[in-house]
Each structure stands twice: as C-alpha cells, then as structure tokens.
C-alpha cells in the first residue's frame, strides 16, 4: 500500500503496511534484547561490587520510576519533533546510557543512568506501539499486535541467553547491548517518512486517558503486576514447594513458551470479535482459575507445567488484546496519548505487583503467591464483568 512521503494519518490504513511494521517491531525487539541482557548483567555486577541487595533493588526500581516519568511527556515530544525523530533520539540516549554503565564506577551514577536508559526505552515502547496501531488495518490489528508481542517475547528471551554466553566481565556485554539498541535506528530511519503524523495535540489531560479506556489500561496494569511479581517471586514459590532450582527455571521457561505461542492465535481471535472486552474478561477468568489451581497442582511438575503453559498465554494476552482494544477505540493524537497512558499503567503494575505478592507470601505463607495473583485476576474479571453489564444495559 502506498503512503504519502510525509507520513500517515493514524486510522486510515486498509492493508498492513509492512515497512512501518518492520520498523516498529524490529526497533522494540532490539530494545527487548538490551533490557533482557542488561537486567541480570547489572545485578550481577553490583553483587560483585558488594552492593547490598536492598540498594540493588532500589536501583532496579528506577526503571518503573523512569517509565512513569517518561510516559506523560512522550506524546508532547512526538507532536513537537515527529514520531521517527523522537524514536531515533531515544535510541541514541538508550545506547549511550547502556554503555555508560561500564564506565560509571561510582554506584550513585547508576541511578541517573538507569533513569535515562529506561526513560528512553519507555519512549520507544510507547511510540512503537502507537506506530504499529496506526499502521494496522482494523480487521487485522490483533494479528499484527500478536506478531509484535511474539517477536518482543523472543527479544526478552534472547537477552538472558546472550548474558549466559557473554558473561559479566569486560566491556563486551555492554557493547553488545548498546549495539543492539543502535541497530534499532536503522529500520526507523528507513521508514521515517512512513511514521504516523500527529497533527493535533491530545484533547484531554494525560491522566484522563487512563480512565477513558479503563478495560485496556486496567488489563495492562494487571499484566504488569502479574508478570513482574510472578517472574520475580515464582522461583521462590517453586523452591519452597519442594521443586529444585532447575525445575523451577524450567517451569518459568514453559510459561514463557506459552507467552510466545499463544499471542498470534489470540490476536487472530480478537480480530473476529467486534467487542474485545469479552475476550479480555475471559482471559482474566482463565488466569483466575489457573492461579487458584497452583496450590492444588504444586506436587506435580507435569500438571503445573501444563497449567503454566496456558496461564502464560492468558497473562500475555491481556497485553496484546488490551493494546488492540485501545487501537479500535481511538485514533491520531488521542491514540498516541492513550498508548502513553497504557505504558504508564504497565509501569505502575510492575512496581505494585512484586510488593503485593511479596507481602502476601509473608502474611499467608507460600500459597500467598497464588492467592495474590488470583486477587489481581479476580479484580480485573470483576471490572470487566461490571463494564460489560453496564454497556449492555445502556444499549
């Protein structure tokens, strides 16, 4: 499909625009690799330097703080300077800060570096998702976002694999991470004339978009909480339940496989549904049932793996379908601002999830892990049911 040289107006596409899709997906996948490589790398290096675990956790938490700070200003930057130029600058800042960790010997310097790196990558997340939504025809939006989520999952999985190969010594792992991020600038630059145009400023204040499409923003909040809290604390839960460390790691791998293989099918299913809220409610309900089954199945690795395979798909599906629902409701600058609110809610979830789930384990014992996650899913299932009931009564 041909597009004007000065960009596209979001919402006017009838066919998948592959140059835009490749630019957005490949850029964010490179960032996924860098983040997946950087998180364990930085933690291991700080551990070697004798930094206390509490301070390591505090430094890591700067990722969520940076994301919440960057989300409200990303749309303003893209409106002023353009989507593609803003993304390219974000790539440069991410790469410089990634390499900066190697040269920063004082621990305090890692706080502004974390803030710069994760603030810039948040900008890339927001604008790449906006670009994908804008470049996707409504009838195929779920399929396209399924591709995006699948490739992004591979990117996050590839980072730890690179870390296992490169190790933590020397400049090489930092150079590889920075190089992966810089590669993202190439497809963005090639497709720069195809990037969506923000002709008008968003009509509403940033926080209003959080509540404008509550089914989508609540879905990504739950996804962030369950993903961050689950990945961080599941190994502890599994080991306390008498699994070995290797068995716990394999269960996480199975969950990740479910995350990857179900995204395109879930996206295709969402394309067949006029109202995607019912699908989001169904996935939340399945996530609730899966969570409640964990304490019952905890003595069987095979049964646990089977549940986690489908459970992983449900968790990640909240993100994919929530993003698709967002794109089906809004266009233009409103969509860009809503994407920023979407990522903001994800960041809040990543901060809240580990705190709530960790506290639940302390209060209720090991099964508190499952009860807390079930609580997150239950709240969203209830919200979705109330919204659907309210909308049907209005109709």
From TrEMBL:
Keyword Zinc-finger: no
Gene Ontology CC terms: plasma membrane
Transmembrane segments: 21-45, 51-71, 83-103, 115-132, 144-165, 171-190, 211-236, 248-266, 278-296, 302-323, 335-357, 369-390
A GO MF term: transmembrane transporter activity
UniProt keyword terms in alphabetical order: Cell membrane, Membrane, Transmembrane, Transmembrane helix, Transport
Record-given protein name: MFS-type transporter
Domain Major facilitator superfamily (MFS) profile: 20-395
Topology with respect to the bilayer: Multi-pass membrane protein
Subcellular localization: Cell membrane
């Amino acid at each position: 499909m041909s597009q004007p040289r000065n960009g596209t107006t979001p919402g006017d596409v009838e066919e998948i625009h592959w140059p835009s899709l490749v630019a957005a997906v490949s850029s964010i996948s490179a960032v996924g690799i860098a983040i997946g490589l950087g998180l364990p790398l930085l933690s291991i290096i700080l551990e070697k330097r004798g930094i206390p675990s509490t301070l390591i956790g505090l430094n890591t938490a700067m990722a969520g703080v940076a994301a919440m700070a960057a989300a409200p200003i990303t749309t303003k930057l893209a409106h002023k300077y353009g989507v593609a130029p803003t993304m390219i600058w974000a790539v440069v800042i991410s790469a410089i800060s990634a390499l900066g960790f190697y040269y920063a010997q004082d621990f305090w310097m890692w706080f502004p570096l974390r803030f710069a790196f994760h603030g810039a990558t948040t900008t890339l997340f927001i604008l790449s998702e906006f670009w994908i939504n804008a470049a996707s025809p409504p009838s195929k939006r779920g399929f396209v976002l399924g591709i995006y989520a699948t490739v992004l999952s591979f990117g996050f999985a590839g980072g730890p694999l690179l870390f296992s190969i490169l190790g933590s010594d020397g400049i090489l792992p930092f150079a590889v991470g920075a190089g992966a991020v810089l590669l993202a600038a190439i497809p963005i630059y090639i497709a720069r004339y195809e990037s969506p145009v923000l002709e008008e400023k968003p009509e509403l204040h940033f926080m209003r978009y959080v509540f404008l499409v509550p089914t989508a923003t609540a879905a990504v909040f739950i996804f962030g909480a369950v993903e961050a809290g689950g990945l961080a604390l599941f190994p502890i839960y599994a080991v306390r339940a008498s699994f070995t460390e290797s068995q716990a790691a394999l269960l996480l791998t199975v969950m990740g496989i479910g995350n990857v293989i179900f995204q395109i099918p879930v996206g295709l299913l969402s394309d067949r549904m006029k109202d995607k809220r019912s699908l989001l409610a169904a996935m939340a309900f399945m996530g609730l049932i899966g969570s409640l089954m964990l304490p019952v199945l905890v003595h069987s690795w095979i049964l646990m793996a089977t549940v986690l395979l489908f459970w992983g798909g449900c968790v990640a599906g909240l993100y994919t379908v929530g993003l698709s629902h967002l794109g089906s409701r809004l266009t233009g600058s409103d969509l860009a601002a809503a994407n920023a609110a979407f990522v903001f809610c994800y960041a809040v979830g990543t901060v809240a999830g580990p705190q709530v789930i960790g506290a639940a384990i302390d209060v209720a014992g090991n099964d508190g892990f499952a009860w807390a996650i079930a609580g997150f899913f239950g709240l969203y299932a209830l919200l979705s049911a109330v919204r659907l009931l309210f909308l049907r009564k209005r109709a």
